[in-house]
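pinging the channel bc i need a second pair of eyes. not urgent but kinda urgent?? the chain im working w is below, pasted from the shared doc
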Amino acid sequence: MQQEVIEGFRLSPQQKHLWLLQQGDDSLPYHAECVVLIEGNLNTKIFSAALQQVFARHEILRTTFQCLPEMTVPVQVITDGGIPAIHTYNLSGWDPPEQEARIEALCQDARQVPFEFAQGPLSRISLVTLSPDKSMLLVSLSALCADMASLKNLVHEISRSYAACLRREELSDEPRQYADLAEWHNELLESADTKTAREYWRKQDISALLTVTLPGEKQPSGKPGFAPHFLTSTITPDMAAKIGTLMRKYEASVSVFFLACWQTLLWRLTGQSDLVVGMACDGRTYEELKDTLGLLANICLFIVTWKSTCNSVNSWRR
């Protein structure tokens, strides 16, 4: 009996964690998405050529995830396909509130359509015309292929490519490919130094810290799926000045200051002095990775006690 052979690359630690997380979640796979306002007279033909160039340059945008029946974790398979179909919408005759509602509906629709991981494409692109000199670009990617920094890099790359296509040129620099970085990360995890660190953290018993709940948590809401909400609060100039003084006094960064505020709030809400707090961190810690596309974000776990110094561990590498 002839067996099917799949030529591919190992998932990165981040991709593997997310893949297994999605298998245990009944909701739709996670998306990375952004909406970009484009001002000026956009040449749609050149814009399509620019996108084609970007997809040709970055393998992660042409990556699918395939596995045989006996495999629980797939491999990355890079395809030769071009860009997915660009869905175009002309809302130039609509009032601004109607345009905004339609764009929101398009974003919601994109989130409801599952990705075909083995077949692809794992990206969806829509171009919405609002007026002769204003357009909206809607981009939705599988979270296996992109994080927040990736979306920023992708927008910058599209802009560079569009400018080059206007000059009838091609981008000459060679981008770092995600599959190579994934293999490098796997090799780091298999090194002797990393093995020692992983064994140390496995021996730390934090099970009691994982059962802390917030008031009202895990109460049935009657609404299926994950639907986060945001509460926005404006920091006044006077408060900002006081925060700046406090940060300078303790030589702390903005992110560290607000993390401490969050930990203090959790302490007050739960009544627990020992906590585990997760925080998303960009994995592009080296200058040469700054412009890389792909899932490089990590979730760092901060084990906090109010009687000792905080410790942290990267949760992807436990």
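so Residues 13-180 form a domain with the Chloramphenicol Acetyltransferase fold (CATH 3.30.559.10). and The first strand starts at residue 31 and ends at 39. — does that match what u expected or am i reading it wrong
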